[in-house]
């Protein structure tokens, strides 16, 4: 049985998990969950993902797991011997700690603001809501401030956790298109040359381009 990824291609979290599966050369089947019809809130779905969110996986041995970052870590460890490494050796305590630091940076200093901008400028209007531009301005100001710090970090290392690509870098990628749709193209601002260099590299990986093109 091939691994099944239950989610939506419109979901940043589903794309995050799918990108890692592609990086690790893991065959998978995308089981479409129609968010517009509320399939993620159906009893059969919440029996596996109690929060009614996408995605979750059913591995080839029947093991189930939800939360995209947890899925990514699981895949990176299980398939450590194939594809891109994406995690430091579990025996290298210092490198592992630096990875977890970088992953925490994404979770606390990028995701809340990128998601907030996308929610207000992209998702809310699609649902018939009205964008709160004051809130967007606050999110944008905060994100710019955080990316100023990113630029300093990335002036000292190629990636967020050091000179090797890790999951922490890839975790950022799915929100890039949403930020562009929202008219907030802060990741390609030449005033942050190190962020620009880093972003161009991670967002042009074949794993992401395949998903971006609808695979």
TrEMBL record:
Residues 92-215 form the GST C-terminal domain. Gene3D superfamilies: 1.20.1050.10, Glutaredoxin. It comes from the Eukaryota. Its EC number is 2.5.1.18. GO terms for biological process: glutathione metabolic process. It holds the Pfam family GST_N_2. Keywords: Transferase. This is glutathione transferase.
């Amino acid at each position: 049985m091939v691994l099944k990824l239950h989610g939506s291609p419109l979901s940043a979290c589903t794309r995050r998990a799918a990108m890692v599966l592609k990086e690790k050369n893991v065959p998978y089947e995308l089981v479409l969950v129609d968010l517009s019809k509320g399939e993620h809130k159906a009893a059969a779905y919440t029996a596996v993902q109690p929060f009614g969110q996408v995605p979750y996986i059913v591995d080839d041995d029947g093991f189930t797991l939800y939360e995209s970052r947890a899925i990514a870590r699981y895949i990176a460890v299980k398939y450590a011997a194939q594809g891109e490494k994406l995690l430091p050796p579990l025996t290298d305590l210092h490198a592992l700690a630096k990875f977890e630091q970088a992953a925490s940076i994404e979770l606390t200093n990028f995701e809340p603001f990128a998601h907030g901008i996308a929610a207000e400028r992209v998702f809310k209007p699609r649902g018939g809501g009205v964008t709160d531009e004051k809130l967007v301005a606050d999110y944008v100001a905060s994100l710019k401030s955080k990316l100023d710090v990113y630029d300093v970090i990335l002036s000292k290392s190629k990636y967020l956790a050091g000179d090797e690509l890790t999951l922490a870098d890839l975790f950022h990628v799915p929100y890039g298109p949403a930020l562009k749709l929202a008219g907030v193209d802060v990741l390609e601002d030449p005033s942050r040359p190190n962020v620009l260099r880093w972003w161009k590299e991670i967002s042009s990986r074949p794993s992401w381009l395949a998903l971006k093109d609808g695979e």
